[in-house]
Amino acid sequence: MSDDQGDNQVVNLESSDGVEFSISRQAAQLSGTIDHILSDLSRSVEAQASAIPLSTIPSGVLEKVIDYMNHLLVSKDGNNNGGYNLKFSGFDEEYVREMDMGLLFDVILAANFLDVKPLLELGLKTVARMAVGRTPQEVTKIYSMPH
Fold first, then answer.
1. 12: which DSSP letter?
2. Of the candidates 65, 97, 70, the residue with the CA atom closest to the CA atom of residue 10
3. pLDDT (0 to 100) of residue 129
4. What is 85-145 written as a DSSP string?
5. What is the pLDDT of residue 120?
6. % residues pLDDT > 90 (the chain)
7. 3 state SS of 42
8. In angstroms, rounded to a whole number, what is the distance separating the alpha carbons of residues 128 and 18?
9. What is the mean pLDDT of the chain?
């Protein structure tokens, strides 16, 4: 699971459909869930060599989550005691704009499972914004809900 020591460590994640993704350990640790798994795996040399299976997240969704975690890593707000700027940037707007409703909901579920709070917040605010100022009938149509 890890290549080198320090900042060059790489974590491998395996999607539900068997696709493996490599991500820097720093980016992976932005997920509370993966951070806990890595802490547990650090005690087992054998486990460190294998990919972390994420059996509930398909590859297309995992790729979007990893893209966002990589973005978070490079956009870290150093002026806020190590926190992250949660204002929607141009990247955030573009990130959610290119998703259809099904993918957006899948990314929200994955962000919740993986405990990636900024991504979860972005997804939920995006869904909420879609409903603002709409009639119940329009909301039903937007979210493809049965009548």
1. E
2. 70
3. 84
4. --S--HHHHHHHHT--HHHHHHHHHHHHHHT-HHHHHHHHHHHHHHHTT--HHHHHHHTT-
5. 95
6. 50
7. coil
8. 33
9. 83
